[in-house]
Amino acid sequence: MTATDTTAEVLALLERGRALTTPALRTAVGKLAAPMNTVAAYHFGWIDATGRPADGDGGKAVRPALAILSAEAAGAPAEAGVPGAVAVELVHNFSLLHDDLMDGDEQRRHRDTVWKVHGPAQAILVGDALFALALDTVLDGSAPGSAMARAARRLANASRALIDGQAQDITFESRERVTVAECLEMEGNKTGALLACSASIGAVLGGADDRTADGLESYGHHLGLAFQAVDDLLGVWGDPASTGKQTWSDLRRRKKSLPVVAALAAENPAAERLAALLTADAKKPAEEFQDFDEAEFATRAALIEEAGGRRWTADEARRRRDAAVHALDGLDIPPAVRRRFTALADFIITRRH
User: What is the SS3 assignment for 42?
Assistant: First the structure.
């Protein structure tokens, strides 16, 4: 299969995930009390800021695609994974609503964020409501009660890890140094945990045993780390036209992302110069730091690359891709489903947004 064929297969997989999940997701969001239902609809891109119908960008849809594919890994119909797909999307978007507010991000998917349009209070309340709705969704399906309970436990554990990761990420911003191991642990929590849940929750709802679900969860965990490594690269060197974020977005927020941490861990002159700059940056008031011009951020990005942080992170994405694929070894899943899991891993490490 050529790279073009692989991309086409993955895009079809993502579109199928959207098509199967969106109607159920809209139904779930419609259960929220006003005005939270319309605020959530704005966040998902279904309406604009004035309440008129919109056809916004609903995101990459990797998580619902994984949940549905994992149901098929268990030999169940794709539809068996829909409640899990909806649940992980609700948890993911709960985290986005809160993250945007905590990070002060004014744009997501090329639109004003919820807190910017509807205020911080609504961003918090709607995020909380989506989180509660996620557990309700996974426990209100047609799977046997024991399967729904197992799926809910995995979702709750992943949600707790996600919140732990966000707390770690915020703490790291005020620290001068963070180790590579600490950064990987944080990203495994913040991103890996929910992708791990996505890759296993559909299988659990589809009747898979714990061995199969655990193997799929391992696949998703490594895929999440690969996904985040690519995100970290885009957070420094991504094209704003593709990412929908500012240039040097992670540098502006003093994020201790993988390229930064890996660069600081290197023993070379560029790492030393970068460390001196970032140490001085940490002592500046936030408002002064935000007034930096493009050349100052470009200097930091160049030092990260010169120190080796960019290459190390790209290599780590490939290592995690390989670990994800190897986690499928020994699992009794249909060959066509295994191929799609592999194609999705390949797509993740080559994406540009």
Answer: helix
Q: Give me the helices (H) in the chain, please.
A: 3-29, 36-44, 62-73, 82-103, 114-118, 120-138, 145-173, 180-187, 193-205, 210-237, 240-243, 249-252, 258-265, 269-282, 286-290, 294-307, 309-326, 335-348
Model pTM above 0.85: yes
Per the CB < 8 A criterion, the answer to whether 253 and 260 are in contact is no
How confident is the model over 205-260, as pLDDT tens digits? 999 999 999 999 999 999 999 999 999 999 999 888 777 677 788 898 888 899 99
Return the closest-CA partner of residue 36 out of 134, 140, 127, 136.
Answer: 127
Closest CA to 183 of 44, 313, 324, 347: 313
CB atoms within 10 A of CB 138: 30
Which of 142, 140, 164 is CA-nearest to residue 90? 140
Three-state SS at 113: coil
Cβ 112 vs Cβ 104: under 8 Å = no
Reading the block at residue 297, the tokens are 């951020």
Using CB atoms within 10 Å of the CB of residue 50, give its burial: 0 to 12 exposed, 13 to 18 middle, 19+ buried: exposed
Give CA–CA dist 112/123, Å, rounded.
12
Q: Residue type at 211?
A: R
Q: Is 181 exposed, middle or buried (0-12, 13-18, 19+ CB in 10 A)?
A: exposed
- For the ranges 34-48, 172-186, 200-214, the lowest mean pLDDT is seen at 172-186
Contact assessment for residue 62 and residue 227, using Cβ atoms and an 8 Å cutoff: yes
Assess contact for 51 and 73: CB atoms under 8 A. Answer: no
DSSP state for residue 332 in the 8-state scheme = -
Q: What is residue 257's DSSP assignment?
A: -
Superfamily of domain 3-348 in the CATH hierarchy: Farnesyl Diphosphate Synthase (1.10.600.10)
| Res. 286: pLDDT tops 70 | no
